[in-house]
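ARCHIVE CARD
Drawer: 12
Card no.: 0347
Subject: one protein chain, sequence and derived structure
Cross-reference: see card 0346
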Amino acid sequence: MPFQKTVLPLALCQALLFAGNTIVISTTALVGASLAPHVLVVTLPMGLQFLGMVTASLPMSLLMGRLGRRWGFSLGAGLGMTAGLIGAAAIVIDSFALFCLATFLYSTYAGTSGFFRFAAAEAVTPMLKPRAIAWVLLGGVVAAFVGPPIADASAELLPRHLYAGCYLAISTVAMLMLGVVQLTRFMPPATAHERAGGRPLGAIVRQPRFVLAIASAAIGQSSMAFLMVSTPLAMLGCGHSFSDATTVVQWHVVGMFAPSFVTGTLIARLGVERVIGAGVLLILAAIAVNSQGLAFTNFWLGLVLLGVGWNFMYIGGTTLLTSTYAPAERSRVEGVNETILFTTVVLASSFSGAVLGVAGWTSMNLLVIAPLVLVLAGLVVLPRRMPQAA
């Protein structure tokens, strides 16, 4: 029953979120270039998107801990609807400042929605947590094929204001998510007595399982972002077409989310540490493929392997994290986790293009090896069996 009333609706919410993200990623730089008063601030809206995700994570997690998931996700969807309307208005009236506000609000919405996987995990038994987390992430597969057509169809919805229709579409998608959230069954929020309990945050983060969980998700996420962001630039620099680059990125997204059909089952059968280790090895294999040549096949296979490796490390890290805290500690730990993840993505994405320009595609791939080896070392050195949270 939790799967039908909680996990599957949250998977639909994830699909709607990523469909909106696809539209935003496709249009933000283009709109910024048309509205910006100076070339130096063209990418400011994209930077504000990352900033909003980082700053929203902990406050939203604490809010959900106090008021419940439904209130938090509803507030996030409301911010998404507002962001879409403001973004469309900014394009119509040619206001760069208003567009920056829209992108910041959207990133807050996107950051709030990152807690879908935790909401699914807490609604099922411990044995089903990996499967619940994986099923939520499956929504990304739907978005990979739904998002681009929505962006294409809405780009000229208002003929005199290119891309304004895309932001109206974003508002509509967020409104649909708001409706799904109201139909989803969530676990009740912790009582005041429960919230007053729990260990100090310092004691929680010193657990070996917590360190390994954070390292797995954060290093997997940052490695993926670091290489993915620069892939289109590297391909175009090698003479490949824009169509080739978009094809590689699309299959990379499929590689990120399609394994979710089996990742939860693999964790249940093999153990979370082995699945995380397999994820590390897959990303190392992606680096090896990327370093062997600059043909289309190298980029395609390397990015698919990178996506699958990310899936194993991300779902494995999230699953491991849910075993490190008690209900009274949940909102603080999840908020810290999301803040760390988004911060690593910001740093990796921000420096990706610069490293490509200075070091080249092969060398930037080799830079990812060291943090991945640290995760492997953690799997060997850190105790694998620790007392789980009550």
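Annotation on reverse: The chain is about 80% helix and 0% strand. Residues 203-383 form a domain with the Growth Hormone; Chain: A; fold (CATH 1.20.1250.20).
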